[in-house]
Amino acid sequence: MSTFINEKLVPLKSNAGRNKLYLNYVKGSQFPVPQTIFTDSSGTEINRIVGYLGPAKFLEQMESMLTGHVN
């Protein structure tokens, strides 16, 4: 999975609640963790995965997002 992510995306990690960039995408003061937020190059959100997904389902969601077939 890391090969797929590194070839197709630019991964960034944020410590939830401590990073202003992350907080800009979170609506409300209470938010579920983990969240994976996908943005385009301008920072506009294009997809979000809320909560934990196992590796196979997470990869499926990422591939769907990249092909424009977001579930």
Notes on the protein architecture:
This protein is α+β, with helices and mostly antiparallel strands. The chain has one domain (2-67). 37% of the residues lie in helices and 15% in strands. The protein has 3 helices and 2 strands. The protein has helices spanning 2-8, 20-25, 55-67; strands at 35-39, 45-50. Strands 1-2 form a two-stranded antiparallel ribbon. The longest helix has 13 residues, at 55-67. The mean pLDDT is 75.
Write the SSE topology:
Layout: H1 2-8, H2 20-25, E1 35-39, E2 45-50, H3 55-67
Antiparallel strand pairs: 1-2
Please provide a brief summary of the model.
By secondary structure, this protein is an alpha+beta fold. The protein contains 3 helices and 2 strands.
Biggest beta-sheet profile: 2 strands, antiparallel
Strand order of the largest sheet: 1-2
Task: Tell me the span between the first and last alpha carbons.
Answer: 19 Å
Proportion of helical residues: 25-40%
Shape: globular
Question: What is the number of beta strands?
Answer: 2
Q: Give the H and E element order.
A: HHEEH
Count of spatially separate domains:
1
Round the Cα radius of gyration to an integer and report it. 12 Å
Q: Figure out the total of helices.
A: 3
Mean pLDDT equals 75
Given as residue ranges, the uncertain stretches (5+ residues, pLDDT < 50) are none
Q: What share of the residues does DSSP label as strand, in percent?
A: 15-25%
> Helix- and strand-based class?
alpha+beta
